[in-house]
Amino acid sequence: MKRFIAQSMNDLPDMALMLSMSGLEFMQGVVNGTIAGPPIGHTLGFWPTLAEDGRVVFTGTPDFNATNPMRTVHGGWYGAILDSCMACAVMTKLPRGQAYTTLEYKINILRAIPIDTEIQAIGTVQHAGRSTGVANGEIRGTKDDRLYATGSTTCIFMTPQT
User: What is the distance between the alpha carbons of residues 52 and 78, in angstroms, rounded to a whole number?
Assistant: First the structure.
């Protein structure tokens, strides 16, 4: 899989490009490397690896840089990857010409992810209406399928003025 990580603001897709595609087409472009992915994925060690209608998977491996003073993976890392997979799953439901943003999200950390353990964060849409989308997510170990955290999100749909 080819990853195209934005190195500057000029690499990031502009609003016109985003609005010219459905959310699913856009996410599939990030997964297949034809559209630059956000640099936060590189910074935090996770990346979208699957995008289909109503479902997005991110794969990641928290390393030493994601730890807190208690020597465990910081809760913000769990939040960032769950927010990403759930919101991007909602994005796959957007038609051309619409955008979205997260209104709120919640996570439940069930157990510590050991450092350098590869995980998948799976976001699945539960509802996509006229103005909002709701998704659930979970973080699971790729080798043992162990459940590390769950989450939920609500996103708002918008029609930007260009």
Answer: 22
